[in-house]
Design a protein that fits this description.
InterPro entries: Amidohydro-rel (IPR006680), Metal-dep_hydrolase_composite (IPR011059), Metal_Hydrolase (IPR032466), Metallo-dep_Hydrolase (IPR051781). This is Amidohydrolase family protein. Keywords: Signal. It comes from Chitinophaga defluvii. The protein is an alpha/beta fold. It folds into 2 domains: 120 residues, Urease, subunit C, domain 1; 284 residues, Metal-dependent hydrolases (TIM Barrel), CATH 3.20.20. It contains 13 helices and 16 strands. The strands form 2 sheets. Strands 1, 2, 3, 4, 5, 14, 15 and 16 form an 8-stranded mixed β-sheet that branches. An 8-stranded mixed β-sheet has the order 6-7-8-9-10-11-12-13, sandwiched between helices. Helix 9 packs across helix 10. The longest helix is centred in the middle third of the chain and has 29 residues. It starts with a helix and ends with a helix. The relative contact order is 0.16.
């Protein structure tokens, strides 16, 4: 009994340590807002100097040389600050993991290998303290993605200012996720490497057979018994969803192309370390790439050490639709700086911005409502004192999600202020 009370006390202390009750979702937009005298980066390649951005009822109403009307409107003078579309993290375990080393805070994977019926959205935790650290860096939307096994289930797009997962849902069940086993023969033992490759190919064939059975099942008019896993693949075969294939090596990418051809489904590569090697084939087969972890070393020792920095520009030049991503959950806050690195290795600044805004929206299927600052789209907006892709000059001063003014405070900032006060540094 004594140990029970000690545990309860510890949990209460932890909840108080992580509590952020003063950071809560914003109410719906009431008055029309005009952001004036700003440098507006629309996300589609256009830059408007000394422009005005207007939005009302959560939607963008005007961009450019806009006259501010008289009446009951809110006017905010940005004084030369930079306005951007909200950054999109296309593939993350945000809200499914809180503390990676604490099992009780992880709800990112299900038992078993083939789980297409799993929905990540219902496990999304809107009270995650990590969410606020992303918003304060300009990330306003995220693709919440399950992990584990071969077929892990469906991802959903969430907006990062919500009371619960129902409020957060921006687009639900947009993609199925296939984690392809690696075909990289690790180690110096040839026999062991051959066995690993054989086992990996068998697992890939297991997924291919599962898809064939599901397709045959879905072509039947009636069933003696309902197979929930096969039913979960119906939107994929109807092209209402895409298959996000997590893979990196050329052999794996070619197998992903084969899946797209055999089953006549939309495929997106996630990872894509070697995508630059077969960029032409990806473009010809209309396969997009979620390019993961640009700040990393090459997978192949013989590759140029700067290859991960250059891959984005090479895909751009080949006409491949791609966006940038990052692994994990808290790491997403550096996403815009990785876009800055891509801009230093062959891309223009506006092309790099597209890679974390409009391109990501296109790949996720939400480009009709967000991803760029255009009339009629959701007012998902970030304001920075400087270049948002430069960690030295980027200070986010304002953010809006669907027109709502977002609280940019977070636990890390609160601790910073707390100890400044303690040591008389305020």
């Amino acid at each position: 009994m004594k140990s029970f009370f000690c545990l309860a006390a510890a949990l209460i202390c932890c909840s108080q340590l992580w509590a952020q009750e003063n950071v809560y979702p914003a109410p719906a937009q009431e008055k029309a807002v005009y952001l004036t005298n700003a440098v507006i980066h629309t996300g589609n390649g256009q830059v408007i100097e000394n422009g005005t951005l207007a939005f009302a009822q959560g939607k963008i109403t005007a961009v450019g040389n806009v006259t501010v009307p008289a009446g009951d409107v809110t006017v905010m003078d940005m004084k030369g600050q930079h306005i951007y579309p909200g950054i999109i993290a296309p593939e993350t375990s945000l809200g499914l993991t809180e503390v990676a080393s604490v099992r009780a805070t992880n709800d990112v994977r299900e038992v078993g290998e083939l789980n297409p019926s799993v929905r990540s959205i219902v496990s999304y935790n809107t009270d995650s303290k990590v969410i606020n650290t992303l918003r304060s860096n300009g990330i306003l939307l995220a693709g919440v993605t399950p992990e584990g096994g071969l077929l892990s289930g469906t991802s959903s797009i969430v907006q990062l200012d919500a009371w619960n997962w129902e409020d957060a849902a921006y687009k639900t069940d947009n993609a199925q996720h296939f984690y392809m086993p690696s075909l990289l023969p690790a180690g110096s033992n040839a026999a062991a490497g051959s066995n690993r490759l054989k086992a990996a190919m068998e697992r890939i064939e297991q997924v291919r057979s599962f898809f064939r059975e599901a397709k045959a099942y879905l072509q039947e008019d009636q069933h003696a018994n309902t197979n929930l896993k096969f039913e979960a693949l119906r939107p994929l075969f109807n092209k209402e969803q895409k298959l996000f294939v997590h893979c990196n090596l050329v052999k794996e990418l070619l197998l992903a192309i084969d899946f797209a051809r055999e089953f006549n489904i939309g495929v997106v590569i996630v990872g894509g370390t070697d995508a630059w090697r077969i960029a032409d084939q990806l473009q010809q087969n209309n396969i997009a790439v979620v390019l993961a972890q640009p700040h990393s070393l090459p997978m192949i020792q013989d590759d140029d050490v700067a290859q991960p920095y250059k891959t984005a520009a090479q895909l751009q030049q080949a006409g491949v639709l791609f966006c940038l991503s990052n692994e994990g959950f808290w790491q997403q806050r550096n996403l815009m700086f990785e876009a800055g690195t891509a801009a230093a290795y062959g891309m223009t600044k506006e092309e790099a911005l597209r890679a974390v805004t409009l391109n990501a929206a296109k790949i996720l299927g939400i480009d009709k409502t967000t991803g760029s600052l255009e009339t009629g789209k959701d007012a998902n907006i970030v304001v920075s004192t400087g270049d948002i892709m430069d960690m030295k000059s980027s200070i986010i001063t304002h953010a809006f999600i669907q027109g709502r003014t977002i609280n940019l405070d977070n636990k890390q900032h609160q601790l910073y202020e707390r100890y400044k006060y303690k040591y008389g540094l305020k």
